[in-house]
Amino acid sequence: MRIIIDAMGGDNAPNAIVSGAVRAARELNTEVVLVGRGADILKALEQQGITNLPKGVEVANAEDVVDMHDDPSTVVRKRRDSSMVVGLRMLSEGKGDAFISAGSTGAVLTAATLIVKRIPGIRRAAMAPILPTATGRCVLIDCGANAECTPEFLLQFACMGSFYAKTTLGIDNPRVGLLNIGAEDSKGTELQRQTYSLLQRLSEAGAIQFIGNVEARDVPLGGADVVVADGFSGNILLKTMEGTAKLVTGEMKKVFLQNGLTKLAALICKKGLGELKQKMDYREVGGTPFLGVTKPVIKAHGSSDELAVFHAVRQAVETVQSDLVGAIEANMEYLAVPKELDHAE
Amino acid sequence: MRIIIDAMGGDNAPNAIVSGAVRAARELNTEVVLVGRGADILKALEQQGITNLPKGVEVANAEDVVDMHDDPSTVVRKRRDSSMVVGLRMLSEGKGDAFISAGSTGAVLTAATLIVKRIPGIRRAAMAPILPTATGRCVLIDCGANAECTPEFLLQFACMGSFYAKTTLGIDNPRVGLLNIGAEDSKGTELQRQTYSLLQRLSEAGAIQFIGNVEARDVPLGGADVVVADGFSGNILLKTMEGTAKLVTGEMKKVFLQNGLTKLAALICKKGLGELKQKMDYREVGGTPFLGVTKPVIKAHGSSDELAVFHAVRQAVETVQSDLVGAIEANMEYLAVPKELDHAE
């Protein structure tokens, strides 16, 4: 397997990207292709004491870099020699099995849609991160790729999310919930009310197991295996979880630092606390796949460090192995939008 | 001061409501009026060993009760003898200074709007809970009263939230942020983009201190003193914080229960853990005021117990003392919606 990696994207590029990729090549038995300014990549390798390219690690030169200030809609045209665009082109040409970038989310999504292209019939590609819950993990779809959505988009997100939960989390018949502000089907805005009835129909057709609305409070508690949301509220959910976990663990830390005895208590609990931190740590989850494009594209966190990049590669490998794209293509009959509800292309 | 309390609203009514109100009358030096079925209220008092009405506690009879299944829009008409409607009528007639209910949120909002009425010029009343943050507390407005909003609504929410943060949290010049999925003013949906420029103008006029967009991740970390949101995404934020705090503290508990030593560690940290729990506990915050109506109306959590009711009364007392309604009325010039943006009544 060959994973193509944008070596220049993200806050800690290229160093963290390069070292995470090298570690992944070594430990995960996969090839990685680092795309970016050759000189910068070699320098990053050198800083780790690597003077010859390790086995399984390749470099593909791309002189330009996509900036966080670049308008996503012009990246493919104006940054054609950037690491992101070159890498995505390699993916689309079959020169690798998956692509990872920690660069600008908007740019990755737009460029992936234009270069790798959506699966025919899919209206929008969506970001589907995996969240920790009290009972395990769940898939959230979408979390920000599409701030404004139609019920048709959400119908397809529900299906894609369900396949993803099946293949990645190994859940046979995932419970699909619609993120809403109450349990009753009359709750929310027009978007939620229309989506509710679409998902009910899809559930009756046997394509997914729709369990109704899920309130945000119940998402971290394991209320659904797949949480379907427009990109705006999905993003609020994802980021609030991140911030709240940080708030609570920060307060915990203050408790442990109070005096010598509490510091001892922290020592006693060290292993458990480490596991908890790991559970809540975005870096362990890896990246967020874009579901709906023809090949696996993974967005790593902008502030990814070596560990996060390593896990993003692990996740890319798993996504390729599980043939998620194949599962979506094989189920397009369910994903087809009912004609009478065909609002937008 | 006289606080009117819906004795029949909420999961634990009337017992928890009655005992919380009695405690508040005793400790907060205020009068409370319990509205509801007289026999049920007396029975609840008896269960606490109280056979004569304590000083400062009154009972006002109301034979009917608003149900969680009642359509909020018909409550005032169909449940005119309910504790909620009778209590709100008493408030509007000046028979008390504030009203508290733990009953159906939709019903309280609709009934309060119809009976107590909005402050002239205010488009929508909004729910403004106080959230714990890493650096203190912040006001969220709205958190669910208005699932669908216009930029004009949000403009007024920003102002009301700023006054509320000033009077309740004692912050001189509160930092007002717009909940969004990115920092740039181009982020979000049309609603956020239009609201952004309205808030910028309001800030230039000196009415509020607008600090731009605030991402959900930064809300629990103290990124703003006032977080302005439509009711849908505000509700997602509020409920995700609640669920995530529960997830993390639940996982913490597992760590402490692992073995004898970790249980000892929990004992050592008991005081600090108690304070942390208190910080994250909705019951300590009290209720959520509806801002924008002519008198203080406070919605207590549906599952309020005695402690939550006690704090809701404390909050009602503080809201009356701070004359928030007066502050909003005195600033209607800033709250007036610019003519060219006058979308909806």
UniProtKB/TrEMBL annotation, chains A, B:
The first-level EC class reads: transferase
Q: What processes in GO biological process is this protein linked to?
A: fatty acid biosynthetic process; phospholipid biosynthetic process
| InterPro entries documented for this protein | FA_synthesis, Phospholipid_synth_PlsX-like
**Alphabetic keyword roster:** Acyltransferase, Cytoplasm, Lipid biosynthesis, Lipid metabolism, Phospholipid biosynthesis, Phospholipid metabolism, Transferase
One GO term describing the cellular component: cytoplasm
Annotated EC: 2.3.1.274
A Pfam family it matches:
FA_synthesis
Q: Which reaction does it catalyse?
A: a fatty acyl-[ACP] + phosphate = an acyl phosphate + holo-[ACP]
Q: What does this protein do?
A: Catalyzes the reversible formation of acyl-phosphate (acyl-PO(4)) from acyl-[acyl-carrier-protein] (acyl-ACP). This enzyme utilizes acyl-ACP as fatty acyl donor, but not acyl-CoA.
What is the official name of this protein in its record? Phosphate acyltransferase
Q: Species name for this entry?
A: Candidatus Avoscillospira avistercoris
Query: What taxonomic lineage is listed for the species of origin?
Result: Bacteria, Bacillati, Bacillota, Clostridia, Eubacteriales
